[in-house]
Amino acid sequence: MVFNDNSLLTALFGEHDRNLARIEQKLNVSVTARGNRVSVKGGIWRQKATRAVLDELYARLEKGLDVGVGEVDGAIRMAEAMVTEDDGSHSIIDEDTRIQTRRRVITPRSPVQAAYVRALRSHEMVFGLGPAGTGKTFLAVAVGVSMLLEGLVERIVLSRPAVEAGERLGYLPGDLRDKIDPYLRPLYDALHHMLPADQVVRRLGSGEIEVAPVAFMRGRTLADAFVIVDEAQNTSPVQMKMLLTRLGENSRMTVTGDLSQVDLPRGEVSGLADAVEMLDGVPDVGIVYFSHEDVVRHALVTQIVQAYDHRERRRRSKARHDG
Q1: Global pTM?
Q2: Which residue in 13, 77, 135, 275 has the most C-beta neighbors within 10 A?
């Protein structure tokens, strides 16, 4: 491979060639860089996958975008899923799945994330289910912000259950805002990744962005809005029905949650599980399932999710056997 712009190669290869070392380790290839030339040794598929990764990262740098460990791992994950030995094309990122916000350009880091972004843009209602760290909420906020900036919606409404299922706020100190904010902090964090701090404050003040607990959604009709319901596994079926029926004209709703982390009282049905079962197969509803392979946090998080999933499967198997 030959790269034309030498000034980008330091960022492409990484400090002390750590990006190349990571690609070698993950794809089981040998990569040698001399000047602006890179040679790759390995099987045919591994060579093509490596080229696809380097092409994608180099293209990011040409557009002025950052390349870090997350971007390298994401490109590797996409290449592993999309590149084949007989494939003459090396493009692993669909331009339609890139998300432009004020602070950064966000790209999917797994094929499921890419499918999720497409669903968010093509469906009026989307359910994203899977473990922590898979980007369910982050990508939904990113698409919501991009649509707000493009003028496709007039506001973003972010909601999640406060104090998980029970929404019992009275024992917390402070006024209502003080009581609610700790439970909505992950949504604020996501916003600050997409927009400058002053814009987040201004848009929150003007109502262009609203962050509220689930209980505050009752009786409203949300028109011209991008609505995100986070941690929805901790809603009851009654709450979920209330939320889904808030959808107004020219609005979209994304509902995210992890059905393995339900904090409802034992024996109580999760509104998220109930809704997904009921709405599965409805043409205008998109349902996207994430797995541990889509976790984009620290590599140890993936191993933790796998360990919990493995234990849960053993428990279910034992329960069926004992039954």
Answers
A1: 0.78
A2: 135
